[in-house]
Design brief:
about 100 residues, alpha+beta, Double Stranded RNA Binding Domain, two-stranded antiparallel ribbon, 2 helices, elongated
Length: about 100
């Protein structure tokens, strides 16, 4: 079964963009476009920035900061989980050694 890409039109700040994606990716693309449109509208509606290019750059910076923060939080959470698993494995080894 082929998963050929097909054109999908998304609308962001009153501009239409055609993007190729597979049918399986369509929903995620539409949700992403809607989220991006909302973020860019918030920046535009704040009144501080009016050019489309600057709005896009500010939005990209905001999203990049959020991604990096989430990656850091995920890494810290994974390290905490790894330490806990290691601790539990050590306790299990000690309990088994006593028997």
């Amino acid at each position: 079964m082929s998963t050929a890409s097909e054109p999908v039109t998304v609308r962001i700040l009153e501009r239409e963009y055609r993007v190729m994606c597979t049918p399986a990716e369509r929903r995620a693309l539409m949700e992403s476009a809607l989220f991006l449109d909302q973020q860019m509208r918030e920046i535009r509606d704040s009144g501080r920035i009016s050019s489309m290019e600057k709005i896009a750059v500010m939005c990209a910076l905001n999203l990049s900061e959020e991604i990096l923060r989430l990656r850091q939080e995920s890494s810290e959470r994974q390290e905490k989980i790894d330490r806990r698993i290691s601790d539990l494995a050590g306790r299990l080894d000690q309990a088994m050694a006593r028997d």
